[in-house]
Structures are given as C-alpha cells and as structure tokens.
Amino acid sequence: MSELSIGHADKKWIFQGIGLTIVVILLAIIFSFINPKFATTTNLLNILTQASYYIILAVGMTFVIAAAGIDLSVGSLLALITVINFELIKGGLNPFIGVILMFLMGGILGAFTGYLISYINIPPFIATLGVMVSLRGLALVHSAGKMHYGLPESLTWFGQGEILGIPIPVLISLIFALFGAWLFNRTKFGLHVRSIGGNREAARLAGINVKIIEILVYSFMGLCVALGGLIMIARIDSTQATIGTSMEIHVIAAVIIGGTSLFGGKGTVFGTLLGAILLSMMTNALVIAGVDYFWQLFIMGIIVLIAVTINNFRDRKLSFNV
C-alpha cells in the first residue's frame, strides 16, 4: 500500500465522516422537535454515557473488521471477565489488582481467539461463534446464574463519577477514541492491520507478520472489552452472566454505520464513534417515545440491515472506481 493511496483514502473517509456528522445532527434536531425532552442537557449526557461502552468496544471492532475479521464473542467475554473479577473483588481482592487481572484476562482470551484464527486457520465467524458460546457457558457455570452487587467506591467512580459536570465514562470513551484513531491512522500497526484486510497475501509477501498482527488485533479487542466492561459494571454497580447479551450486534452495527468496510482494508475510528452515538441516540429516542422493547429490537435490526446494504453498495462502487 503506497503512501499516496493512504492519503487519498484519508480524504475519502473525512468526507464520509462529515456526511455522517450531518446525519447525526439532523436526526438530533428531528428528535428534538418530536419530543422536547430529547434535547435536554441531562438527556444528551445520558445518551453519550450509554454510548461510552459501545464506543470503546467499537474502536476495537474497527481494527478487527478492518483486518477482514469479525468478533462475535465480545458480549460473552465481557460477561465472563466481569463476573469472575466482581466475585474476586467482593471476596477481598484489592480492587485495582482486580482491574489489572480483568485486563489480563481480556487480552489473553482475545489473543487465544486470534490464535485460533491465524494459526489453526478457523474462519473468524466460526471461531468467534464457538468462543462466544463457550465463554457465555463458563460465565453461567461460574456464577450459577446469580446477580452480583456492590463494588467499592474506588471502582464505581469510573462509571458514576463526573469532572466539571461531564460523566467519567464519556471522558474515558472520547479519549480512548482519540487514541484508537491515532493507532489506526498514524502507526505502523494500524497500517499493517489495513494492509492485511486489503490483501492478506500481498501483506505477507510485503514482509508483514500476518499471524502475529491478527493475534494482536484480537488481543486489543479483548482489552477494549475489559475497559468497556469496567465502565459498565462500575456504572450499574452489578453484573451477571447474561450481561452483554447481543452487545456484539450493536458494536458491529456501529462500525458498519461508521463506514468501515465489511471486507476489510478500509475504516475510520471517527466514523465508528459517530456510529455508536447515532445508535444510542436512536435507542434513546425510541425509549422516550415509549416504544416497546421488542419493537426497539426489530427497528435496530432493520437499521443494521440497511447499514450492511449501504456498506455493500459503497464497497462495490469503490471497487469499480479503482
């Protein structure tokens, strides 16, 4: 991949980001006219707080999909590591050691998933589907289906604290998105990820250690799950084995809506950020409008189908223009 082609791609993603930003603003205005409660400061901060977990996980998923992969196991991984560490902390383990352990578990289990894909050659969809079911089963067995409450205040601050009136989850997710954008666009690692997604064999011939990069990508995804999980359980001060169910759909949808190609090689963390905010905004608008939860699921499913269809058309158009 030449530097010239990367610069052209950057401009293309900037224009797409501007378009998505306009869509987010227009929808916010429309929702505000429909229901004045939508545009209150409290509600807008609530939307960003709700989006914070998804932003962090979607940043990791951007790397996975840009590398022509997919990870269906993020919700189950979040459930397992939060349940185990919640129990350990409640059992007397130092909270910060518990947090470090949670990140270690996320990184190692993510690396294991990457190993299955890169060295055992199991297709990403199948490998992560199997991991998803296995980890959810382990979480259920370990917790026996019980809900756990009561984290120490030193941890709940990550989910419930504020700085200058801005919720901590919002600040953490925005800073992390900036870090993710830098990692994706301005580092050799990000370039290698996009190269593998664009043409795996060409990347290998160019001297990129494809297998190691893939393991690093899924390990990074695991670290994102640990961070998102920490903020989530700190905010609701509880966890259980069913937490994070179907979360992967929301995360993948945010990445696709944000403009990352399902076929790999192209993506944008800024677009992912907007995609996550857009989905949380729509969910919030449906809740305020009193739409039944099951209808919310139906509508979100339709949104995902539309996003995938647009993604496919966009990729075909781009491939014809090359």
How would you describe this structure to a colleague?
There is one protein chain. Helix 2 (41-66) crosses helix 11 and helix 3 (74-90) runs parallel beside helix 5 (124-143). Helix content is 78%, strand content 2%. It starts with a helix and ends with a helix. With 322 residues, it is mostly helical. The strands form two sheets. Strands 1-4 form a two-stranded antiparallel ribbon. A two-stranded antiparallel sheet has the order 2-3.
What tags apply to this protein structure?
single chain, 322 residues, mainly alpha, two-stranded antiparallel sheet, 13 helices, 4 strands, 2% strand, globular
Concise summary:
The chain has 322 residues and is mainly α. The protein has helices spanning 3-34, 41-66, 74-90, 95-118, 124-143, 153-160, 168-186, 188-198, 200-205, 210-236, 247-257, 269-288, 293-321; strands spanning 148-149, 162-163, 166-167, 238-239.
Task: Describe the secondary structure blueprint for this structure.
Elements: H1 3-34, H2 41-66, H3 74-90, H4 95-118, H5 124-143, E1 148-149, H6 153-160, E2 162-163, E3 166-167, H7 168-186, H8 188-198, H9 200-205, H10 210-236, E4 238-239, H11 247-257, H12 269-288, H13 293-321
- Work out the radius of gyration: 19 Å
Please report the total strand number as a whole number.
Answer: 4
- Give the amount of beta strand, in percent: under 5%
Number of helices: 13
Query: Can you give the mean pLDDT?
Result: 88
* Helix/strand/pairing category: mainly alpha
Reading the helices and strands in chain order gives HHHHHEHEEHHHHEHHH
Model regions low in confidence, pLDDT < 50 over at least 5 residues: 1-6
C-alpha geometry: globular
